[in-house]
Amino acid sequence: MSDHRTRGGVEAPRRGRAAAMVLSAITLSTGLVLAPPAHAAPAVGIWLTTKDGQSKLARQPDAEFGSGGGNETITVDPGTTYQAVDGFGAALTDSSAWLVNNSPRRDEIMSRLFDAESGIGLTALRQVVGASDFARSTYSYDDVPAGESDYELAKFSIAHDEADILPLLRRAGELAPELNVVATPWSAPAWMKSNGSMVGGELPAHNYQVFADYLVRFVQAYEQAGVPIDSLTPQNEPLNDPPSYPGSPMSPDAQAAFIGNDLGPKLDAAGLDTKILAYDHNWDDTDYPNHVLGDANAARYVDGAAFHCYGGTPDAQSAVHDAHPDAEIHLTECSGTESEDPAATFGDTLTWQASNLIIGGTRNWARSVVLWNLALDPAHGPVMDGACSDCTGVTTVNNATGEVDYNAEYYALGHASKFVRPGAVRIGSNELDGVQNVAFRNPDGSTALIALNPGGAERPITVSWQGQEFDHTLPAGGLATFTWPPA
Of residues 202, 237, 328, 409, which has the active-site annotation? Predict the structure, then answer.
């Protein structure tokens, strides 16, 4: 950049006149006309993770535009633009926060997760409003003895989160100032529910107003604690009715009414600009989010739809986007699981998540991609009975030994989060048979291209950008990120 500014300053004309005199002398003496020197082709940084784990976000030798051609070609088209990017990350569940905050390697873990220089620079988090299935107890922010109620929310308190969750959220915000937080309740407090329990039962309509008040109080309390909430979803997995951990089914009609009549107006009345995202469940149902987004009353307040990965395919996001082009699309939960052969877990997870979430999710309009637990222990917990018993986290934190493992989820996220920064815009890139890819232009003008070769043989490819090309060979099972500066 300093060279560019110098060329635009005082010294440039002098060098220009000198160069012209030299060229004239050469022309007179030889009869040859020499072209002025061309600008150097931009260097391309390359980072690689392989399915066998031998390379993990490892820097490769740079490539250079102008040095390729002849292979199947990925053409990156900066003139075709799609959605902006909010970030990539995971969920700081009660279980995750307890593990990380009590680890002797707490500071290392947080830096490797959220610092863009020393780590992967995560910029998105999902925060549970109260307890989820990955919590050490069942709790809300307004618990009262059985048979009692608290319609004035006099006993509302986020004190539970001050032990482990909020200190880590504040630290994440220090390391990643552009942090984007989406919050989701698994259940209303027990006294608001039809069965008096956070497990099972529904939220009856006559308690919609007080539940909206409760969520507004949560957003206000978190903001006062130094953690702004960027968006809310009204209910985690509203089509799920878990029998042994917090949950609460909510029909699309009920969600539309709750957003339109209660949550939206109360957020507005409180002067909060927190967005509302509908649905927050699997790809296999587009009718639900389309119904809420298409409801005239709810549409005044709802900003988009959120999806999970446990059923269907990511193109469902595009179907909802096509029906509601102004609605934001977010991918808010997906957990890795241990493979039948544990030795295959790293490779299986890397390939599936890179294909379906990092590439598939963003090619289908996701502004954010958020995985499930940031940390779990070697026994896949702490987790409530009846919930996922083989889920894997972004990290595995063993506080009995002090060991920390950075799992495939960490590297899949890192191939995006470290190089695709908030405010980036997805740009055009053609798909190749057998090589998946997605491209972005960052706010600083740099380009990031993520490419996955899920096959069993290496694949030579050519990358073309603004009429220049370079070649690269993607190893079998290889996930690569290519970056280059502005033209």
Answer: 237
